[in-house]
Amino acid sequence: MPIRVLVADDHAVFRQGLMALLAREPDMEVIGEAAEGNETIRAAERPEVDVLLLDLSMPGLSGIAVAEALRKKRPDLAIVVLTMHEDEEYLRTCLRIGVRGFVVKKSASTDVIQAIRAAHRGEQYVDSSLANVLVAAYLGRQGAKSTALGLLSPRELDVCRFLAYGHTNAEIADALGICQRTVETHRANLVTKLALKTRAELVRFAIEHGLLKRDNWDPGPTGGAAPAPPNPED
Known about the structure:
By secondary structure, the protein is an alpha/beta fold. Helix content is about 45%, strand content about 10%. It has a six-stranded parallel β-sheet with strand order 2-1-3-4-5-6, sandwiched between helices.
């Protein structure tokens, strides 16, 4: 069964573009649209809606108010916020409410698709560009490294860095020269050892412990220094 998506955005042209984008995906079906807060709540209350793609700035009730109301009415509904706001407070508020995805509108269309799929699986998805927002907010904050760093192996630290920058398991496996199953194992170890529940918490941990530094470590397809070559025993 395809992922059934409701698209809520007050800009008709943008909303129609999103609907056309999602319609091209074989595993997705757009089953409705809304342009206003209260209208969105009424449409999303239908049990056949799997994922709500929600703009934060809409007439009537705001996207935040819509998300709060729907979390009470339909706690099983996966909500993905698509917004122009690259603001840590918006992100923190959305995650606190229980929103599963947070994507900024300037991001690639593939990010929206990935966020919807992740949310439908019950996973958290935070736009990788938000890592830079958090870095900007926390750079310069000095503090002793937590003993939590001592719990992580060198490879787990590498995986933590890549995850904090928003890379997928497949991208991490390719960059580190290990299989995806090994990445999944390291990822599970990070969750267990650090008690991190969301990607945002992982980003915060990485920043506060000096794992993300623009000047000497910036993993990504466009460049930056890569981690040390993998140990064959990892």
